[in-house]
Amino acid sequence: MSESDRLVPKLVSLLEDFTQDWDRDSEAPMTRDTKLLADLGFESIDIIQLLVAIEQDITHKKVPFDQLLMSKGRYVDDLSIGQIADFLAQHTA
Amino acid sequence: MTTTLFIGLDGCTFTVLDQLISDLPGEGITMPFMKSLIERGVRARLRSTPNPLTPPAWTSIMTGKNPGEHGVFEFIRAEDKGNEVFWTLYDARNVDAETIWSVASRKKKTIAALNFPLTAPAPENIKGAVVPGFIPAKHLRRNTHPRELFERIKQDVPGFDPKELAWDFDKEKQAMESLSADETAKWVRYHLPREEQWFRVAEYILGTDKPDLMAVMFDGTDKIQHQAWPWLDQSLLPKNPQGHDKEMREVCLEYFRNLDGYIKRLVEMAGPDTQVFFASDHGFTASNFVLRINTYLEEKGYLKWGVNDGSEMALRREASDFANLDWSQTTACCLTPSSNGISIRVKQKPGDPGIEPSEYEAFREKLMKDLYELKDPVSGEPVIVDLLKREEWFPGQHMKLAPDLTMVLRDHGFVSIRNLKPSIVHRPSPIGTHHPDGIFIAVGPGIPAAGLVETRKIVDVAPTLLYSAGVAVPSDFEGEVPPSFFSEAWLAEHPVKKGARTQHAKRMEMEQEMDANEQKQLLEQLQMLGYME
C-alpha cells in the first residue's frame, strides 16, 4: 500500500468530522475520487479551514499547500481527496 | 466558583449607553439593570488601540499588550512582495502574545471565552471553554474548545442553532444588497436571535461549568451602531420620530432591552460575590465624509492605479473593490481601508520598486506635509487631524508590520481605497464609525460606587481581569490594575501581585494566500460593516 493510499482513510475520517454539520446533498461515502467543491459543497473559505485542520490533525507541521492550490499561475478549480493524499505523501514524507 | 464575570460589548460607547440608562420621554429606561449596575460601580472611558478596530483592540484586551507587541493590526494582513501584495487572514495563531485565557489556565483557573475574535484555533493548554467569534457555522464545531463542548452545547442548550449564532455570510450579504429602509430594520432584527443564542450558550456554560473567569462578548452593539447610527445618536434623531424613523428607533431599543435582560440574568446567576466587568474595544461616533485616500495619493504622485486589462482576474479585482495598484510605480498607498494606514514602500534590495532606505525620513516628512494639507472643500477644515508614526505608536517586536503612518480623520471615519474621484465627498447622511473611546465598567465586592473616573487604557483590562480572578499580573503586561477601580480596603486585603513574564509558544504559522474570491468575500464583509465606502 502506498503512502498516499494510507492517507486517504485519514483524510476521509477528517472530512467526515469536518462536514458533519453541513447540509450535504449527497450521503455517498467519500473515496479517493470525491471532490471538495463538486461533491462536498466546499466554498473557497472552507478549503483554508480544511488545510488548517490537516496540519493540526494529520501532518502536525506546516505544509507548502500553495503548491497544491496553485497550478500554472492560477488557483485550481477543485481538488479530490486523492490529489490531497498524493500531495501530502510527496511533501511530508 | 466564578469570581470574575467579564461581558464584552463590541463598540459600546457612553454617548449611547448613557441615553439608554436615562428616563427618556415616551421611552422610559431601556436598560434599567445596566443603570443599577453603573450606579453601584465605577466607570471610565477606555482609550482604544491607535487604530480603534476590532481585531487589534480585542487582542489588546486579551493580551494586555499593544498591537506592535501582539502583532495583530487588522482583519487582513498585507504582505508586500515587491511587485505584488498578498493578503492573508489573521487567526489566533498570529496572536504573538499569551492571552489572559492561557495565563489563567496555567495558574489552575478555569475560564470561558465566548465569541471573542481571534480565539480560533484555541491553544491546547486552555482549561475551560472557548467558543470563538467571527467563525462561520460550518467550522464552529472544529474550532470549539474542547472539541466535545460543541456536542454538549448542541445536546443541552434548547434551541441551539449554530447557523443563527455564528457569522452567516450569505444572510449578512442579503442585508447589504439593498439597504432600503426595510432592509436596515431587518438588519437590526437579524441580530436579535443571534445575541439570544450567545446568551443561551453563556448561560449554559456559567451554570454548568462555573468557570473562575467567565467571559462573553456581545457584538450586535457594534453592527447595529454601524448601520443604525442615525437612530441611536439623539442629536441626529427627529424630535418625534414617525414612520421608518420610529420603527428603526424601536427595533434598536428592543435590541438593547434584550441585552439588558441577558446581562441581568448572567450577573444574577454569577451571584453577589462575583466582580463584574464590562469593556468595549472602541466607541462610536458619526462619520460625515469619505476620504478616498489612494485617489489623493495618486494626485500627489505617490501611487499609480493598476491597469484593468479586462482579464477575469482584473475584473474580479475591480469588482472586489480591492486596491488594484501598479506596484512598480507606487511609493506610498493605503492597502486596506480599515487600517487607516499608509504604507511607504522601501526598496529591500537594488532594483526593487519603492524609495531608497536612506530617503525614508525625508520622504515621510514630505508625505505628512501633503496629507496635512488636504482640506475639506466645503468647510476648509483639515481632513486628517493626526498622523501616527509607527515607531511612536506601535512599539514592539511587530512594529514593522504596522503601517508607516496611521491617519486620524477629523470625523474618526475609515478611509476608502476605491478608485473614484473626487478624493473627498460628503455623505448624504451620517453613518456610524469607530471612536477611540470605549467603555470600562466594574461593579461588585471591593469595587467602589465611584462613578466616572479617569480615562483608562485598553491594555489595563487584561491585568484587571487577572487580578480579579486571583492571578498575579505578568510583569510584561503594558497596563496596570486601575487603583480607582477597587476600594482601599479591598486593595489592602488583596494586594496586586506582580507575576513572572507571560509565556508564549510560537504557533505554527499558516500563510495561505487568499484567492480573489475570498478577498471579495472578506471585503464585502468589511463593506457591510461600514469600513468601506
Short description:
Chain A is mostly helical. Helices cover 56% and strands 4% of the residues of chain A.
What does this structure look like?
The complex is a heterodimer of chains A (93) and B (533). Chain A is mainly alpha-helical and 93 residues long. Helices cover 56% and strands 4% of the residues of chain A. A two-stranded antiparallel sheet of chain A has the order 1-2. In chain A, α1 crosses α5. The radius of gyration of chain A is 13 Å and the shape is globular. The two termini of chain A are 15 Å apart. Chain B has 533 residues and is of the alpha/beta class. Chain B has 2 domains: 4-286 and 433-499, Alkaline Phosphatase, subunit A (3-Layer(aba) Sandwich); 288-429, no CATH class. The longest helix of chain B is centred in the middle third of the chain and has 28 residues, at 181-208. Chain B is globular and about 65 Å long. The chains are: A mainly alpha (93), B alpha/beta (533). Chain A binds chain B through residues 17-22, 44-46, 48-49, 51-53, 55-56, 61-62, 65-66, 69, 75, and chain B through 89, 91, 121, 136-142, 162, 508-510, 512-515, 517-518, 521.
Indicate the topology.
The complex is a heterodimer of chains A (93) and B (533).
Chain A lengths: L2 H16 L17 H5 L3 H16 L6 H4 E2 L2 E2 L5 H11 L2
Antiparallel strand pairs in A: 1-2
Helix pairs in contact in A: 1-3, 1-5
Chain B lengths: L3 E6 L4 H7 L11 H9 L1 E6 L6 H10 L3 H4 L5 E5 L4 E5 L10 H7 L4 E4 L13 E4 L8 H4 L3 H10 L5 H4 L3 H9 L3 H28 L4 E6 L1 H13 L10 H28 L4 E5 L3 E9 L1 H7 L12 H8 L12 E2 L7 E4 L15 H13 L11 E6 H4 L11 E5 L14 E12 L1 E7 L7 E2 L3 E2 L3 H8 L4 E2 L13 H6 L4 E2 L16 H13 L5
Parallel strand pairs in B: 1-7, 1-8, 2-16, 2-17, 5-6, 5-7, 18-19
Antiparallel strand pairs in B: 2-15, 3-4, 8-15, 9-14, 10-11, 11-13, 12-13
